[in-house]
Amino acid sequence: MQHSTHLLGKQGLVFKIDPSFQYLRGSRAHQTPIWPPPTLVDIPQGSTDLTTSRLVLQVVEQNPRNVIMDLGVAWIQKRKMCITIAFDFGSHILAFITIDHLCQVYWEASRAALPAQHLDPLVNFDYWLQTVIDWSQNIPFITGHKAPLAVKCIQELNSPFAGVGTYTANELFFLAGLCLFLMVLEVFYNPSRIACLCAGYMQIVYTTPSRILEIIKPSRRRDEYLISATIREQHSFQRYLHVFGRDKCYISARQKRLVEEAQFIIDYHQEHTWGTDGGYSWIRNPTPEWASYYPSGREYEFKDYFEPGFVREALDAHGAVLGGPIFSENKWSALGGCQVHTSPLSQAFLESSPTFLNLNIYETIYIPSGLRAKHVPTYHFNLGFNAWSILTSFGSSSASRIEKQNADGSINTVFLAPHQYPSSEFVRQSKLLRTIIAGS
């Protein structure tokens, strides 16, 4: 049967599999069989039909990376979004259809035994938030030229930010008001930035389903039994993106002020360098006790460009948990935010943890959408993926200082090596790419 089914598959035909089907699915290093192991599925000897087993579909869980099915006596997990397997339930067939065969199937006796444990934040937000904190604290404390960028870490397989890929990572950091070139230590060692990132992610979680539905609606009018958006309809998703593939990004007046101030700080420090023992020209977000290493003064400190209006659905739903860490509890209350609740985030960090926002610019949490009439240019980078930002890179002469006392009382300095930044930046203007050589 193995040879005949192989030929059917080559012809693009569907065929029924049995225990003799030995093909594996998955990446080269981690392939697993599609047919369940005999230790999990009890079928009579000589039988080739799963209908004689005790498998009954009971529960289906899904997120952007997995589809998990509870079949009563066994759990199955489909990894990623590509699969070529279907389950025949008699009156209905549950099929996972894709353009290739890169998929991963796991059979286990319990839900907990499955290798990927991505959680749905809509089911239990506090539990998901705790996984974010646990995950971030387990990221290796790496300094020097190997220090990773936060925007790349959240795209890793074990990241709790399920579904964040190339374009989503760009949009997520924009919604969070975070520069793409912040390191892991700068983002995940600060509760304000973690909260901003979670707010941006939850905004995507809340808004994406309705947007996808809007795109596939026309296909249902064309064929009642087919959900398939045309290429043109797929491209229409671009209207929901703020920075990815855009010539310019439309923002509010107050956010434009924040962006311009942040860009001024970057440009200023690339033009004005000081010789220090560390070999860098400026320190991002210094602590007060290190002000002497920051000759320009505190007014030249780099700030984030967070706009709450872009994550309104997320803050309306989780403001009691995220509002305090983002703005500080006093500022959140002064802005008219809801009462702050204790959460895994507030318990994991000290109350005195800083927020890298210019709090004086926020007079209200939200502003009318009609005031988002300003725009700023976008910049395109190659960070191992297509990266789009409304800020240029910090430059190779920049460093971030982390408050970590050594036994002798000194403070470790975290440097960002030149190769972490792109060698060139591109700004889209009038549909043309103008090259700007970055500082090095």
Describe the structure.
With 440 residues, the chain is an alpha+beta fold. The chain has 2 domains: 2-113, no CATH class; 125-437, no CATH class. It has helices at 2-10, 125-137, 150-153, 166-176, 184-188, 191-222, 231-235, 253-271, 312-327, 329-334, 344-348; strands spanning 24-25, 32-33, 59-63, 66-70, 75-79, 85-88, 93-96, 104-108, 248-251, 282-284, 374-377, 379-382, 386-389, 398-405, 411-415, 424-429, 432-437. The strands form 6 sheets. The chain has a 4-stranded antiparallel sheet with strand order 3-4-5-8, with no helix packed on it. Strand 6 and strand 7 (93-96) form a beta hairpin. Helix 4 (166-176) packs across helix 6 (191-222). The chain is elongated and about 75 Å long. The termini are far apart.
Bin the helical content. 25-40%
Structural class: alpha+beta
Compute the CA-based radius of gyration: 25 Å
Mean pLDDT: 75
Along the chain, the helix and strand elements come as HEEEEEEEEHHHHHHEHEHHHEEEEEEE
- The total tally of domains equals 2
Termini gap: 62 Å
Low-confidence stretches: 79-83, 275-280, 286-296, 401-440
Cross-sheet strand order for the largest sheet: 3-4-5-8
Write the layout of secondary structure elements.
Blueprint: H1 2-10, E1 24-25, E2 32-33, E3 59-63, E4 66-70, E5 75-79, E6 85-88, E7 93-96, E8 104-108, H2 125-137, H3 150-153, H4 166-176, H5 184-188, H6 191-222, H7 231-235, E9 248-251, H8 253-271, E10 282-284, H9 312-327, H10 329-334, H11 344-348, E11 374-377, E12 379-382, E13 386-389, E14 398-405, E15 411-415, E16 424-429, E17 432-437
Parallel strand pairs: 10-14
Antiparallel strand pairs: 1-2, 3-4, 4-5, 5-8, 6-7, 9-11, 12-13, 12-16, 14-15, 16-17
